[in-house]
Specification:
13 helices; disordered C terminus; 18 strands; 8-stranded mixed β-sheet; alpha/beta; D-Amino Acid Oxidase, Chain A, domain 2
């Protein structure tokens, strides 16, 4: 099978390790109990959970390319809880429910490796924690309100680190401090996605790759149309990540931006010289967040998320979120600034991908249309590996019409008008991005940000970590 766009380093590595299964596109007419559209983490966990709950259920999953070729095979591979987003959870859910959901997200950090071990999935999982780092003075202390809120409930999942410890652990002399969450891990994201794909098939899920959705007709049953097939389904679950922006009802609550990554050649000697001995993952407090980690084969992966590239007009995602990054040189420059000892290390590969960001930085789940038999999950905001495990619980419960703690939790909510319609969205996105870049540049130079940048920061959707505006 060939792909329309160059694939990420992660997916290419996964496919070399485990050659693609020869799954043909679906053709003709079919009927199923549940049709899942989208073969990433959320769709695969939903399928696996459905079969665990009701083994006799007929579950069909279609994927436009290969399972794991979307965001699930392009992200940075951070397996994190929602403790860093506790303030957003509390605002949305209230204290008691926020605590329950945060604890569940923490448990997912163990549940996913346990599932992989039980099912023979080698996703290069390494458990050395996550550092919420500060690369300039303006970022120092961004974590304090979050830590205080968690500690009020008797938990100490995130602890503050002094400058020396943060800098030493990541081998970066520019770091001015950080906050560390020990219960976090790194994974090779595409290996995880391809592993879930194999498990889902083994459990009886009918999976068809190279089978894109072309139309969805609401009804009872609903009709899912593809280029060569028509599927009648009692229930439809949409797990298409940023591509959900094609539906205007969903688009008003998300904004689609690109995340860009580079990876170096293997550099074991350089990493040893820096003192980076383990697999800790890190991300800073920029408005346009930067993040970095090592890989199992001793490379450094470095990325920048949120509004770092071109913007999609309306819901028509295309080449602007696919293929090789157009920002290789800028990412390499930032990597060299963060890690001066790597100033001569080049880029081995780069890629980009869409991120579906919500205002809160948390996903939401709801039903599309009036009949109630089409449901979706969207808005993972660049932090989806652990949350997609929970998404599988939520969406499977919704598909089975179960009334439990997941189908009724506050993450199941109707979309709101959080972002403006076109053309204001597209025009404003470019202006806001320039303002964010100006703010981050001023912060790096220890100068007051321009007035426009300070105003624009108030419109920033929450990313991997909350901004100051989110904790007031």
């Amino acid at each position: 099978m060939s792909s329309m766009y160059p694939r990420s380093f992660w997916l290419e590595q996964a496919l070399r390790a485990e050659p693609e299964a020869p799954i043909e596109p679906l053709r003709g007419r079919a009927h199923t109990d549940v049709c899942i559209v989208g073969g990433g983490y959320a769709g695969l966990w939903t399928a696996i959970q459905l079969k665990a709950s009701e083994p006799s259920l007929d579950v069909t999953l279609i994927e436009r390319d290969l399972c794991g070729s979307g965001a699930s095979g392009r992200n940075a591979g951070y397996l994190l809880s929602w403790w860093s987003k506790y303030l957003s959870l509390e605002k949305l859910c209230g204290s008691a429910e926020a605590l329950r959901v945060a604890i569940a997200s923490d448990q997912a950090v163990d549940a996913i490796p346990d599932f992989c071990a039980a099912n023979g999935i080698d996703a290069h999982i390494r458990r050395d924690g996550w550092l919420w780092s500060a690369s300039n003075v303006a970022q120092v202390g961004l974590w304090k309100e979050t830590i205080s809120a968690i500690e009020r409930h008797g938990y100490q999942q995130i602890v503050e680190w002094p400058k020396e410890r943060a800098a030493m652990r990541c081998g970066s002399p520019v770091l001015l401090g950080g906050a560390f969450e020990s219960h976090a891990a790194s994974v090779q994201p595409a290996l995880l996605a391809r592993g879930l794909f194999r498990v889902a098939r083994a459990k009886g899920v009918k999976i068809f790759e190279k089978t894109p959705l072309t139309d969805l007709c609401h009804g009872n049953p609903a009709v899912v149309k593809t280029p060569h097939a028509e599927i009648r389904a009692e229930r439809v679950v949409l797990t298409v990540n940023a591509w959900a922006a094609k539906w205007s009802e969903i688009r008003k609550s998300i904004i689609v931006v690109s995340g860009d990554m580079i990876v170096t050649p293997p550099i074991p000697q350089e990493l040893d010289a820096m003192g980076w001995k383990d697999s800790i993952v890190a991300s800073d407090g920029r408005t346009l967040v930067e993040y970095y980690r090592t890989t199992a084969d001793k490379r450094l992966a470095f990325g920048k998320g949120g509004m770092s590239g071109k913007f999609t007009y309306g819901g028509n995602l295309g080449a602007e979120v696919e293929g090789r990054s157009e920002f290789e040189s800028q990412l390499l420059k930032s990597m060299h600034q963060t890690f001066p000892l790597l100033s001569k290390v080049p880029v081995a590969s780069s890629w980009r991908g869409p991120i579906d960001r919500t205002k809160s930085g948390l996903p939401f789940f709801h039903r599309l249309g009036k009949r109630g038999n089409v449901m979706y999950g969207v808005g993972f905001s660049g932090n989806g590996i652990g949350p997609c495990y929970i998404a599988g619980k939520i969406l499977s419960a919704m598909a089975l019409d179960c009334r439990d703690e997941w189908s009724t939790c506050p993450l199941v909510r109707a979309p709101e008008r959080d972002f403006p319609p076109e053309p204001l969205r597209w025009l404003g996105s470019g202006l806001v991005r320039r303002a964010f870049l100006a703010k981050d540049r001023a912060d790096d130079e220890n100068k007051p940000p321009p007035l426009l940048a300070r105003i624009a920061a108030g419109f920033a959707p929450a990313g991997l970590t909350p901004f100051k505006k989110d904790i007031k």
